Amino acid sequence: MSGEDRRSRDTYGSHQTAHFHITAALAEANSLDDLQTEFSSLDGELLLEFKKGIQADPFHRLSSWSSRNLVNVCRWTGITCSTDQRVISLDLSGMQLSGSISGILGNLSRLVHLDLSNNALNGSRLPEDLGRLKNLQILALDGNNITGRLPNPLGQCLKLRVLSLSGNLLDGSIPFYLGEMENLTELHLNENQLTGSLPVSLASSAKLQTVNASFNKLGGNIPQEFGGLQELTILDLRSNEFNGSIPEELGRLQNLEELWLKDNNLSGSIPVALTNCSSLRILRLERTGLTGPIPADVGNLRHLEVLSLFRNSLTGDVPRSLANCSALQVIEVGWNKLNGEIPHEIQNFPELYWFTINDNQLTGEMPSFHNMPQLQYFSAENNLLTGTIPDSLYNCSSLQVVRIGNNPLGGQVSSQIGKLTDIQEFSAFSANLNGSMPLEVGNCSALVAFDLGWNSLTGSIPGFFTDLVNLEVFSIAGNHLEGVVPWGIGEMCLMAPLWYLDLGVNRLNGTIPDNIGNCTKLRYLSVLTNQFSGPVPLFISNFTALEILDLRANNFEGGVEAKWFLLPALKALYISGNNFRGELPKELGSALNLEEFWASSINLTGSIPAEVQQLGNLRVFSANNNSLQGPIPPFGARIQILELADNAFGGKFPTSLENPELQSLTLHGSGLGGEITFNFSLLPRLQTLILSNNSFTGSLPESLLQHCGDLILLDLSKNDFSGSISSFTHNLTELQVLSLAENRLTGGIPGWIWSLPELSVLNLASNNLTGNLPKDYSLLKKLMMNSSDNEVSVPVENSADTPYYNFYYVVGHQISFSRSSFIIYKVSDISNDSLSGPFPSGLISFSFRPSFIIYKVLDISNNSLSGPFPSGLSTLAGLQFLNLANNNIFGVISGVRFEDMALLVSMDLSNNSLSGTFPPGLDQLMSLSFLSLANNDLTGDIILDFPDNATCKLQVLSLAGNRFTGNFPTSISQCKDVKVLDLSFNQLVGALPDFHDAMPMSELVILQISSNRLEGAIPPWVWQLPELQVIDFSENNFTGRITTNFSGLLGLGMNSNLSTTTTSSATTDYGISVRFSTLLWAKGVALRYTYILSTFAFMSLSNNELTGEIPHEIGSLTKLRGLNLSRNNLDGEIPSTIGSITSLEGLDLSRNRLMGFIPSEIFHMNSLAALNLSVNNLSGPIPSNSPEYQTNTLFTTAALFPGNEGLCGPPSNKSCESSPPSPDPTLVPGRTSSNTFGEWVSLQAFLIGVVIGHVGFSLMLLSSRMRSTFSRLLGLPSPSDRFRQVSYGVYTVPQ
């Protein structure tokens, strides 16, 4: 079993119960003696008639069937008779008969058992005459080629116990009459083409033990009535199109042993009720679309042997109770969204042989393997696991596969690996491993694949290969290995079928050993980025199976050999960055399977061979930075990327490039010139065109922008173009980068440029342009612009909105937006890609970065980069904006002297796997305005000790979603301009400080400290923050009463005089304006911070220990849109003044001790969209003088009645004339941790954008655990469904 179910289980229980059914049927038939033996010959004649329909009998099994032998019918092959010589059983299964099934069998009136399974019988449908077999108990026709629908007369066989029709070509729906067969125990309809729904009538067949309808096209919901089939032991509905949720009623099936629902389109969560199926052995729910947690009580399934839940969207922890399922043989929970640590109890599984937890978000250490002696397959790759590889893993002597790569582990591969003599695959790539490779790997003679790539291994490659005679894949790329390639690899290849060898990105040197030529089965060979020297070995030309050869970034010498291109299977050849010389051979045209050829920076001379046109599969040809000359020849029809920059071709723009598939063309600095007359309509898919640093003249090519509507990057800079830009058309909705700098263009900047929706970089510098820049940049939210060295002006009245100029790094070219010849201010933006692997240290390393380049912005957010936190960041002394958010960077933030980064304005390290304590030195950064360390694994106290008399410029501080402890950081009060403070989801303790001297943080707009362990009374200063709009103190231990003085909360009250057009900003020494804005989804509209000031406000004090009455003064908070006071100990009546908050959209007062009537004013609040007053002691009539309550679905029994038994009147059915009953003692008000209706009002999805002029860093301050809850507050889709982030800009997506 390789993680998938074994489909070898017989289609109707391997006929394991068939013997029992036949015996019972024979006993019944033998008891019937009212028929005479003279009918025996009549049965024989009927069988001979059936035989006429058999077209092939390859084994002559029916040779005994003869008219001359009618007296011995009961001795014919496959025939069983009763005591009175009547045929009661016909079993011809597995005889490879072909032909049709004759309806004449319907005349065998005493037939009890009919089995024609596993033959090649066919027919347009089952004969209707079979319905006359009134005594039939077993009908097995599975494994044939029967088509059509199930005939209705079959429903007259009321004695049927087993109906097996699987493995045919039946179509149509499952007939309802099957539910009328009261004796039916097994139903096998799997592997057909049935459609429609599963009939509810089947629930009437109370004796059903097996229902198998898998591998069909059935849809609809799984009938909840199946929960009444108390004898059911197997329910197999896998590989259909069922939808809806799994019925809770299935939890009543105490005898259920196997439940197969995999490969359907289900929704919802795994029903907790399933944990009541105490007999369950197999639970297969993989690939069904399920969400929510794995039920905490899954441990109740003590007999469970197979638990398969992979490829769903399950969340939450791995339940500790799973340890109770000690009979488990298979655990598959990979490819979900599980988080938290693996419980240490998960270790006692003596029968477990298959264990997969890969591709989740699990943290902590790997489980112990002390009592898993049968374990054969373990996969935990692509998680956030830490610690070392446990020694107990090496004691699992039956292990065949170990996959633990892409985790921030650590430590070394132990020498104990040699004990795994059966291991076939060991994969630990990108696992932060160090040390050397143990020599004992050579004991693992069964190894097929060994991957330790992208770690920090040191030392040399050991010579352990001789005994690895089964090795096919070997990868140690991306380490720090030194020395030479061991001779043993080549010796191993004399026996081993090695086809994948990756030694790239190490420090290996010398030459490649000659005996590597023994590896003739190689399909992939990579030695890139090492220090190999000398000529490329001649044996390469003998690798006839080689598909990919990567020799990049070494010191290989010699010429580009013609023999390489004669390799028949070659698909990709990478030889860039070596010391080759000479010309490209004409044999290049013989590599007919070649798809990619990369040959930049290898000193090529001569011309590109004309034979390149013969390469019909070639997609990429890159030969930048050489000395190629002559005309550029035509390329094959499939060419997509053509890079020929920095060569010496000369002449005009090549007219040979008539390639409709071409997407990227780079001819930078290639000595081309003259007017461009090429018809760009021949390149309709062109996305990137770089013609910079040539000598092109004349006007800009009009056909380019008329016909290349997919252009993303266009660079025509540093040429001699003249004329105006206005003649261009503007069919360029995808254009992101436009550079026309350093030409001789004249006239104004046309208006169409300002309406390009995706434009991020615009460089028009050093031309002769005139006129004004526009006043409105609202359509250019992504733009970074440079129009220097022109005579354009900016209207004075709009100067505050003009963009700021910086350097933009794109496609390896430096487009300078600075006129300084010594300092280049650089923005390195590779955010929002799908980059993976180690953190690119070259971005900050002086060995890769010229000293004259000063980073202002470094943004690598929203990728899948991994590895430890980059310790060299403090060398970027000029850095102002740092964004590493949303990656897999791990480890302690060490080796960085933040105090040396004095210019830092914004830093976002959120949503990684950082650990350790609060990084020191951040409180010394007096320019820092934005700091987010949210959603990591940081611990300890929050240490912020600002220098005396220093001015703290911090405006946004988000530390949510960590494990910080200690008290609330009082020094934050020195930050007078702080607008957003988010310390939620930590472990802070103690009381909030009481600032007596002066009002702290008077600019605070968002105060979020939920889900901590804070206690004591809420201090008065909180209620005097004039700008406060969002306050969330939920899920703490606050006590005392709610204040009655809200007069200071101007941002929440009716007397707010805040301007709706005011934003806060800070100015750096470089004149860059840093603007903070908030984006929030409300009723489908993205509201910016300035608008929210007058339209959104929110307060949550839920799940604390507050007492007393709800103050009447709360009605003065007229700006509130959400109010949650649930799960406290509040008493008294609901104040009618709440009705004054006319903008309120969500109100939750549930689970308190409120009493009295419901104020009628609540039912006049037209904006109210969510209401919960349940679990209190409310009584009296529900206000009915407003017609809204009759139609508003929010005012339902679910929102009002639980725990409020004294309520009466519509919409309830309780008359107000009867006396109210006593409160239900089982509904206890106050705090609870359960997830109930009142959860809707958690604080949600505030997106803080730091905007550099028109350039914004988009940062999620609050955790993903909270986003969906806010959407429920207003009944909206998830913000992630309506919002996307693009490099340096925030954009809403039209729906």
From TrEMBL:
- Renumbered residue ranges of the record's region Disordered: 1209-1231
One Pfam family it belongs to: LRR_1
Residues crossing the lipid bilayer are 1240-1262
Which keywords does this chain's UniProt record carry? Answer: Cell membrane, Glycoprotein, Leucine-rich repeat, Membrane, Repeat, Signal, Transmembrane, Transmembrane helix
Alphabetized InterPro entries for the sequence? Leu-rich_rpt (IPR001611), Leu-rich_rpt_typical-subtyp (IPR003591), LRR_dom_sf (IPR032675), LRR_N_plant-typ (IPR013210), RLP_Defense (IPR053038)
Q: Where is the Leucine-rich repeat-containing N-terminal plant-type domain?
A: 43-82
**GO BP terms, alphabetized:** defense response; post-embryonic development; response to other organism
Record carries keyword Repeat: yes
Q: Which GO terms describe its cellular component?
A: plasma membrane
What's the domain of life for this entry?
Eukaryota
- State the membrane topology: Single-pass membrane protein
User: Where is this chain's protein located in or outside the cell?
Assistant: Cell membrane
Similarity-based family: Belongs to the RLP family.
Protein's recorded name: Leucine-rich repeat-containing N-terminal plant-type domain-containing protein
